[in-house]
Amino acid sequence: MDLALAEAHAAAHREEVPVGAVVLSANGVPLASAGNEVEERNDPSAHAEMLAMRKAAQVTGSTRLDDCTLVVTLEPCPMCAAAAVHFRVRRIVFGAYDPKGGGIDHGPRVIDHPTCLRHIEIIGGVREQENGLLLKNFFRKLRR
Amino acid sequence: MDLALAEAHAAAHREEVPVGAVVLSANGVPLASAGNEVEERNDPSAHAEMLAMRKAAQVTGSTRLDDCTLVVTLEPCPMCAAAAVHFRVRRIVFGAYDPKGGGIDHGPRVIDHPTCLRHIEIIGGVREQENGLLLKNFFRKLRR
């Protein structure tokens, strides 16, 4: 989560919504990490999770991240949750819960759905306060 | 839909799952089109819809495809349906329904969900038989 948080802080410096993500191998080795790049790439799908998983697939040379864990500072949105199913990650560990935009414990709960083809282990609320505060501070500054 | 079908056929020739997508401007002018490139890019998120919307955002220079229509040969999966919300497309027109993998009329029904922030008009089942047949034939060949 430290590396994901570092990516989130780096995103904030680029004036992106501060979310960071890391893909870990089965042994816990970081394969790829990314921060949000929506503004920089002019691409609303360039969420930290999507970029990190895409990079990890390039690194491993496989479209399947079978034994991998996706670590992310914020509950993934429905797009990223569904992407994690396509990338076949084994586990998602996330920081702050996102009642408005989340897609795992909130909203359409994509991974819980009976049509979801992959069982992904979910661990939410890790260092929740620290992860949430980063986002809160970012949006507080924006509104000033 | 002709252009989307042409992209789907081109994808089949590249041995990709044959799905094609086009983004149309408010006036019905194609801004971008793409076929599935999952195998070619080694990227399970490289669905036709994602690539077409990403290209359209580059063409228009905006992250919002506000007045645009996404035309796709198959019902979008939950990832692509949720991406269409992020890209703020106005309308999705799709061909064959996808009871197993779809995310609009099936599965988590991402766009219908009360937490979904964008109302997107949906027109499904357009040239359904023709669009479905292309996929059926592709998978039949694979199983041989």
From TrEMBL, chains A, B:
Residue numbers binding Zn(2+): 47, 77, 80
Primary gene name: tadA
Keywords associated with the record: Hydrolase, Metal-binding, tRNA processing, Zinc
Name of the protein: tRNA-specific adenosine deaminase
Source species, domain of life: Bacteria
Gene Ontology MF terms in the entry: tRNA-specific adenosine-34 deaminase activity; zinc ion binding
Cofactors named for this entry: Zn(2+)
Gene3D superfamilies: Cytidine Deaminase, domain 2
Protein species of origin: Acetobacter aceti
